[in-house]
Design brief:
The structure is a homodimer of 182-residue chains. Chain A is mostly helical and 182 residues long. Chain A has two domains: 5-48, Homeodomain-like (Arc Repressor Mutant, subunit A, Orthogonal Bundle); 60-178. Chain A has nine helices and no strands. The first copy, chain A, has helices spanning 5-23, 30-37, 41-47, 51-75, 79-100, 102-107, 119-131, 138-154, 163-178. The first copy, chain A, is elongated and about 55 Å long. Mean pLDDT of chain A is 71; it is low at 148-163. The structure holds a DNA duplex (30 and 30 nucleotides).
DNA sequence: AGCATGCCTGACCGATCGGTCAGATGCCGA
DNA sequence: TCGGCATCTGACCGATCGGTCAGGCATGCT
């Protein structure tokens, strides 16, 4: 069965993403990916030079999305508008990013501090500042990141609560924590 | 070089713990562990039946600690005392547990819902209730867990802030979030 | 028709993995 | 001194891994 190259490329990427998220990078063989796609292992290596290349392209996507959100925030004029944009986009993005790259933290600790992931160390700084409303309290800025970034992974691990219910409750709590002291 | 069995046993366990935390379970070979300990791979398999057995014994330890803390909280009389004990013990324990078992989440998702890890789903319930001071707001109880559990992993990943500085700031924030609405 | 190109397959390779096994070594009680 | 047990080693096994290679097959251009 022969398909057009771009579609096969994306099929492999999607299958690899599901497998990596489920069983980790080292726990996923090229044979597994090929079976999901419905082709041979050699076909996978025809579209990607390496197994590493699949991973690299897979993680580049959320990084680009996060960078795009960062630029969108940088483009708006008022801090209030920046906060709104950040609050809307960052939660979903942080949740998605952590869910899709959870296996990286276990198998490759320290990898997120290296390029191209190290971009994240600078981008979230502006994101969180926008989200926390230019708060001077570092605890508030840190907390916004910690809470948001921890939602996806912690939910369903310790807590038996669907993400749909957990997120608004936590968001309300984040907003409250970030309110200025009266 | 021959050592007494209990010491060798613990040496292997300690070496495996470091390796698993660094490179993951599948990323660590028995040869790696043996090299760290200073013995042969067969010697490792003399003290442990399986590679799985090493992992099982490694993760059983923090589970026991968490259960012990739970029993300590159940033993105290007043809710205020329970809250103090929980606040003291749970933060360190949650941080340690998440750091030492971070690789599990990436390589074996869903494992923490199965025995013997599923005990954690019941134990933290009382812990968090004690920590949150019997709050009726579910968001507060959830938040206490989420925040505490997210400290170890998120710190040093996105945030360039040592844990020693991060923890008191977050603890202050947790307490504030849990205060009753005035 | 003939040929080139893109896409894919099955067979194969070396390396590494977890695990087994027979036997060597050292220690300790009889 | 001798036998037995605990501890450990080197050699080895089958399985699986990532990756290579020669060739097959369809399509489309000349």
């Amino acid at each position: 069965m022969t398909r057009a190259a771009p579609e096969r490329h994306d099929d492999i990427l999607a299958a690899a993403g599901r497998r990596f998220a489920q069983s980790g990078y080292r726990g996923t063989s090229l044979q597994d990916i090929a079976a999901d796609v419905g082709c041979s292992k050699a076909a996978v290596l025809y579209h990607f030079t390496d197994k590493k290349a699949i991973l690299a392209e897979l993680v580049a996507r959320p990084i680009d999305q996060l960078r795009a959100l960062d630029e969108r925030i940088a483009a708006v004029s008022s801090p209030a508008e920046a906060q709104r944009v950040a609050a809307e986009g960052f939660v979903d993005l942080a949740v998605q990013f952590r869910r899709e790259t959870a296996f990286l933290r276990g198998e490759f600790p320290g990898l997120l501090q290296q390029p191209p992931f190290s971009h994240l160390q600078h981008i979230p700084d502006r994101l969180v500042r926008a989200f926390a409303g230019h708060s001077d309290r570092p605890a508030a800025r840190v907390a916004a990141l910690v809470i948001l970034a921890g939602i996806a992974e912690t939910c369903g691990e310790f807590i038996d609560l669907p993400e749909a219910e957990l997120r608004p409750a936590l968001l309300a709590l984040v907003r409250r924590a970030l309110e200025p002291v009266t």
